[in-house]
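hi! just following up on the protien thing from before. the input was this:
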Amino acid sequence: MTAAAAACAAVLAMTAVPAGAADGAPAREAGRAPAVPGGPAPAWALKDTGKPTVRFRGLAAVDRNTAWAAGSLGTVLRTADGGRTWRDVSPPGAAELQFRDVEAFDARRAVVLAIGEGEASRVYRTDDGGATWKESFRNTDARAFYDCMTFFDRRHGLAMSDPVDGRFRILSTSDGGRSWKVLPDRGMPPALEGEAGFAASGQCLVSAGSRDVWLATGGGARARVLHSSDRGRTWKAADAPIPAGDPARGVFALAFRDRAHGLAVGGDYRPDQASPRPAATTGDAGRTWRTAAAPPPAYRSGVAWLPHSRTAALAVGPTGTDLTTDAGRTWRTVDTGSYDTVDCVPDGACWAAGEQGRVARLER
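and the predicted 3d structure came back as:
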């Protein structure tokens, strides 16, 4: 058994319940995990994507064998053999686009979001594993800038844009991303001055169950999390105790294991700036948030609950990966490799992706 496998087994045994463009440098080895109390530390196993100039901020794990990664230079990759080989399934003519989110339903069906001002924000869908794509949405409003996307099920999903006319804009689909419409903004509270979402990991808009969805913000005087219990038609905003007051600070990623219990991570993405409180937790669907007692040591852009656990989760960022085994109250660094996003799935697999073509899987 590998160290990563032993670590995963130990973590799950403790917690299981019934029931930008990259700099072009070659992919480097995963950072060495420091010694931590209680046994071996989780470690990522890098999978060679063959794309060292691409930064993958979009990630969708289907199972331990199948995953999709989306990133800069209009790149979309898919693996069906656990990362041993990758197929470049990028949409034709998309080389100038920045894909920041991908949502996959299985090995053949997926939806990807390109971000940017005006027509740079687009959505594509494939039904044949990326052999062909259909552009299902192109933003024609120069004021809009789409950041993230989420799906409640195979048909119903949302995408969010930075504020237009003082309110976040929500895009909705009821046919699996084949068509989209802008929802009325009457139920959206006013945005703060300078407030926006961060297209850093595809996790600034997340859902749990069939109707609940949360939107993470930063850039304003306060970091906030907005919650909707009716698929994005009405929203309530709550302050989050994560550094704010600057365009580079706020909540970058959310993860909910059910409609009540959630994690928020973020901070200040600038490498020369400290992020003293980059993580928070909620137990009431995001109405209130509490700062982690022992947070990660630096900015984190992605977060995911470990499968079948009420208490274990991973947070990732450019300076490392952190593990919590007490539902986000305390975190410990377990790897120093650079990743932007993380995704875990019910069969027990966890994947991470980031700069310099890096995609990794937590082996079992």
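Helices lie at 3-15.
The CA atoms of residues 147 and 199 lie 5 Å apart.
cheers
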